[in-house]
Description:
about 70% helix; elongated; mainly alpha
Amino acid sequence: MKTRAQVSAGLGSLLSLWFLLIPVSAAFAQDDVGQAAGLAFLGAFMMVFVVIGLGMYVYVALALSTIAKKTKTENPWMAWIPIVNIILMLNIAKKPLWWIVLCLIPFVNIVIFIIVWMGIAEARGKPNWWGILMIVPFINLIVPGYLAWAD
């Protein structure tokens, strides 16, 4: 009696595995055209994000360079170099350069960047709460432009 139960349990396991693997094997048996279309879609999707990212980088670098020129901070070209632009931001906000170490510590960097943007806003003669707005999504896209090009 025990062997009959073991055989039927094993047969049930094999059947359930069979019915599970049939749809999975059909999913992996795609033709080359479908796979190429999927890769093309993925490439186009990634290209859109690269273009948006480059556009945002150029916008922030141009705004930071303009802020540096208007505050008469030396070397405004440093806005275009990653990591070095943090030094430029610290110079504009008149903060010590050792704060760049604090910018590398997770969660501390959020507070430090808010304080730095508050200093940048004060250097431009704007209220310092504009720096606090850098933590608000989508508003933080407007703040560098406002600080750079508003009179």
